[in-house]
Fold:
Amino acid sequence: MTDTADTSADLHKKEKVASDEAIWAPGGPVEDWTTDYDIRDEDYVNDPVPIWAEMREKCPIAHTDRLGGSWNPTRFDDIRAMAKMVPELSSRQVLVMPPPPGQEEQSRYEQQIAAAPITADPPIHDWTRRMLLPAFAPRAVLAYEEYTTELAHSLIDGFIENGQCDGAKDYAEQIPPRVIAHMIGVDPGMADQFVIWVNGVLGEGLNDPELRLKTRDELLGFIGAEVQSRMEDPKEDLLTQLLFMELDHPEANITPEVVIGITNLLIVAGIDTTWSSIGSALWHLGTNPSDLERLRNEPDLMPIAVEEFLRYYAPVTMARVADADVEIGDVCIHAGDKVLMNFPAANHDPEHFENPDEFIIDRARNRHVAFGSGPHRCAGSNLARLEMTAALTAWIERIPEFHVSDREPMKWAGGQVRGPRIMPMSFPPGEKR
Ligand code: HEM
Structure:
């Protein structure tokens, strides 16, 4: 064999890269939403509600071969049942796309602690989730209310005199990364970098495995250095608490790697989810003046309105990978198949919500699953609600009249986390505080 000849391992690698490239390449237009859906399709990203209605009616657990293949349930009951199918439907790969090259060789343990508890199955899930719950209890998150409100007002000070801003970039996107930095105890000046990293993992990174890999290395490098510094010099912050936590659980094995994974999740899960929800709520109010007027005149309506924003514009669709064959309805999901946990579609199921595709700001019965369902239900929901409430309250107080303008085109992000990314807003200029 000459030096330049390929070994069989090289050939295998080349085949793998070629097949991965085929998976990542953009597909053509969707011909049939029930057999060929594409979560990256522009129509799906811009307005998925009518597409879910079509899928639910024609084929409530749709399938596609795109992106390596996946199932997409759209009925509330199916999604809630699937969320409980643990450990048959494993969380160790919560992104529907295949792992970027290099990452598929991770062990099952490494996959599970990569962003625990969201990527973990029992028993690792049980104790990593328990590590986080106290910090996100309703009373505990109240400690961040003043900081979040002050932050919202200072952001508004930055653009109120101009009579215009980008509601996504200048406002919604700015709040969650600073709250998370404040919470875990890292420099809030890192917030812009956090946004770039989140985009590299969940945004553009979903279509670009190299970017995803590079981002992952940078983010984990940053967190690793922060963890190392807390080990040498403990501080009064969540990162230190997690590192030195003593948990009364027989299986708990809290290592620096586990804490790095949890922090990775807090940065990724805590940022573009909440930024998407704040952005979608502002988009709604900026395009529906009568709902804006109601919130302006009835500020006590805010908690109920926040639930309807969450239901109607639920941003998060995580995935599962089947570890065993699972029957649901008349579908058999085979071991190795991916399944989207389409909580946003569940929130539009007419079997569970009256007039589900209508936004009803004072909807009385609203048991939505925007925060998921079952054992992986969002651990940060109290903080998310607090951030949404503080951001929307400060905005309406200072900018009571506004609209989404056509200064430049709106841009929505879609895929597994949906929300506005470019959102030109106009309003009568106001004064700084
Ligand atoms: C409006 C904003 C948010 C939404 C809609 C949201 C939604 C979700 C959903 C649907 C899940 C379940 C995923 C699954 O079943 O695989 C989840 C899990 C999780 N979320 Fe959130 N989330 C939000 C904000 C946050 C924030 C601010 C944090 C913390 C900083 C957070 C931390 C978590 C954690 C730790 C989990 C994993 C729980 C577990 O696996 O046991 N989330 N979130």
Summary: The longest strand covers residues 318-322. The two ends are 75 Å apart (CA to CA).
